[in-house]
Amino acid sequence: MKVKLAWRLARLVLHLIQGLATCALVFPWAGDSRRERLIQRWSARLLGICRVRLERVPGEDSLAHALIVANHISWLDIFVINAVHPCRFVAKAEIRAWPVVGWLVAQAGTVFIARGNRRDLRHIFKGLVEALGQRRRVAFFPEGTTASQGTVLPFHANLFEAAIDAAVPVQPVALAYVDAGGAWHPSVDYTGETTFVDSIVRILGGEPVVARLACLTPIPAAGAHRRELAQAAHDAIAGALGQTQPRHSRESGNPY
């Protein structure tokens, strides 16, 4: 088992090195469409190395131009979504400190928000509206933190305003990680005192993972209030994951 884990770790390290080289040598001269293709292929390959099989749940198509919101379980979430359709992500600043991966997701266009920094939030909000206005696909995790499998925390409503200002729909995405029997996978949760390295070792050393991604019905933003959008997106994702207890969106603070 230790030999297998060491081999998987070695493959992951080599893949990360390849990603670093691509970001340093190719991205500065690549157009948006080529960058997206490279990010999509690299993300899919990363999932394969981690023995995570992506399974698209039948439903809505993934919109090419929308504000994407998803429940947040693991560091894998960004790569699962990017393997389907690359996005410009908004993420908490702590992700930037992750070894190697933090730098890679930054090079892929991720915008980082410092917890409790309202000035930072206003600046980033303007950038999101501009990106959406340029017909880019933007994604964030409105819970603001990771939650245990099957639990959807209340959504922060602030960044939903970007969809209203840019006049684009909000598309909820439901994520789940299951084992061969269809139960929540025990190795994927990234909560409590679990570190980034701990999580990688647990995933590489555990049983194979099935990542289920469901693109849900888009929610029109025109004429809506951000709290209404946040609640509608929350309810759609919670319903897709089988969570029936309603939870209310959060208005105060920033998403992280």
Counting H and I runs of at least 4 residues, what is the number of helices? 8
The helix/strand class is: alpha/beta
Strand order of the largest sheet: 1-7-6-2-5-3-4
CATH architecture descriptor text: 3-Layer(aba) Sandwich
Q: Element order, helices and strands?
A: HHEEHEHEHEHEHEH
CATH level 1 name: Alpha Beta
Low-confidence stretches: none
- How many strands? 7
Family: Belongs to the 1-acyl-sn-glycerol-3-phosphate acyltransferase family.
Domain Phospholipid/glycerol acyltransferase: 66-178
Transmembrane segments: 12-31
Pfam families: Acyltransferase
Summarize the SSE layout with pairings.
Blueprint: H1 2-25, H2 32-49, E1 52-56, E2 67-70, H3 76-84, E3 88-92, H4 101-107, E4 111-113, H5 118-133, E5 138-140, H6 161-166, E6 170-178, H7 196-205, E7 209-215, H8 226-240
Parallel strand pairs: 1-7, 2-5, 2-6, 3-4, 3-5
Antiparallel strand pairs: 6-7
Description:
The chain crosses the membrane at residues 12-31. The chain has one domain: 3-Layer(aba) Sandwich (Glycerol-3-phosphate (1)-acyltransferase). It is built from eight helices and seven strands, in the order H-H-E-E-H-E-H-E-H-E-H-E-H-E-H. The chain has helices at 2-25, 32-49, 76-84, 101-107, 118-133, 161-166, 196-205, 226-240, and strands at residues 52-56, 67-70, 88-92, 111-113, 138-140, 170-178, 209-215. A seven-stranded mixed beta sheet has the order 1-7-6-2-5-3-4, sandwiched between helices. Helix 1 (2-25) packs antiparallel against helix 2, helix 1 runs parallel beside helix 4 (101-107) and helix 2 crosses helix 3 (76-84). The longest helix is centred in the N-terminal third of the chain and has 24 residues, at 2-25. The chain is globular.
